[in-house]
Design the sequence.
């Protein structure tokens, strides 16, 4: 029997990490940060290397419906689900598993991935996904993708691989020994030295029925909420029922609520030029630096300045740098950010402060 597989692309987000370029109605996946397309469009095009359009599902927030559909307007057969209220990843994935199970089959495979990651080697990525689908169906297990680490990064969760491996399509797959939360620097260095740890990329593969059983066992309250919506799937009441019940589902991540509690998940170690573009600093990992740093502006006047990240609303604007280093400078039509690069993770605190000042139109 040929395996039916679907791609579920999670495209929510609040638009804080790349403020002021990103906003609540234009989060990271709707930005063009590297190349000539948004991260969302890049994710969809990548998925279409394996999946037909009608097997690709975009899950986003209701507030992003217009901008998401506009960005993907050239694709006419994609499926969309717009959440009335964000409830983290467990309700999102639980709903999609239930919807696909009931409208197609419990045996259908879901390949679940974020919309806002950058992947340079798409050929290698697609090979990994195909191997993951095979491993998933042959073992009736959840398969996650782990990135071979290049540094002791403290911003990612880690996956420890077990000792035994099995090859699928010539690609090694391991049992997961343990999931580790984002570590401190000391532990991250220990993980790298150990050699059996991978970065958790938030990409995983599982059959719809497997996910439903795992949710029923590990998140019974969520399962009950999904059951309340099940009778409406495929009927004229589906959307209204979804909009009514989904906001009441328990907000929890699929990692904490389900995946980390599974008895024998699998992991595929991968290297395909992955970057989750977590903040402005991550652009240094994907763009070629100049003497002053990196910038989208073509007219930089540099005097004794280095290691800066600059983004201007107009690429032709002249930007002069004088004796400055390690700064993030981002200018948009209505906002200007000047920050110490070492504190880029605190930009979300700036967004919260702006809200407290009653200036929400700027976020």
Sequence:
């Amino acid at each position: 029997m040929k395996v039916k597989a679907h791609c579920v692309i999670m495209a929510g987000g609040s638009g804080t990490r790349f403020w002021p370029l990103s906003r609540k109605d234009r989060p990271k996946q709707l930005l063009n940060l590297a190349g000539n397309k948004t991260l969302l469009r890049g994710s969809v095009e990548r998925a279409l290397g394996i999946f037909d359009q009608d097997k690709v599902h975009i899950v986003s927030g209701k507030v992003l419906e217009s901008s998401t559909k506009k960005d993907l307007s050239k694709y006419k057969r994609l499926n969309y689900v717009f959440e009335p209220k964000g409830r983290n990843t467990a309700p999102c994935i639980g709903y999609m598993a239930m919807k696909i199970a009931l409208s197609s089959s419990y045996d259908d495979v879901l390949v679940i991935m974020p919309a806002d990651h950058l992947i340079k080697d798409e050929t290698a990525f697609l090979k990994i996904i195909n191997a993951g689908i095979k491993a998933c169906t042959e073992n009736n297990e959840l398969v996650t993708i782990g990135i071979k680490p290049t540094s002791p990064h403290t911003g990612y969760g880690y996956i420890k691989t077990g000792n035994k491996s099995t090859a699928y399509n010539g690609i090694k797959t391991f049992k997961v020994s343990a999931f580790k939360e984002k570590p401190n620097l000391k532990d991250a260095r220990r993980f790298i030295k150990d050699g059996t740890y991978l970065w958790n990329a938030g990409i995983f593969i599982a059959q719809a029925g497997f996910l439903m059983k795992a949710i029923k066992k590990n998140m019974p309250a969520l399962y009950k909420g999904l059951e309340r919506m099940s009778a409406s799937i495929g009927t004229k009441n589906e959307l209204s029922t979804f909009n009514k019940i989904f906001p009441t589902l328990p907000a929890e991540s699929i990692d904490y609520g389900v995946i980390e509690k599974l008895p024998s998940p699998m992991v595929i170690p991968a290297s395909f030029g992955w970057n989750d573009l977590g903040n402005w600093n991550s652009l240094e990992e994907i763009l070629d630096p100049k003497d002053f740093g990196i910038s989208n502006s073509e007219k930089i006047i540099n005097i004794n300045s280095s290691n800066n990240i600059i983004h201007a609303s107009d690429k032709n604007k002249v930007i002069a740098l004088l004796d400055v280093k390690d700064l993030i400078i981002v200018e948009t039509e209505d906002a200007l950010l000047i920050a110490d690069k070492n504190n880029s993770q605190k930009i979300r605190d700036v967004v919260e402060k702006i809200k407290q000042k009653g200036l929400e139109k700027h976020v």
The two ends are 50 Å apart (CA to CA). The chain is about 30% helix and 25% strand. The longest helix spans residues 122-139.
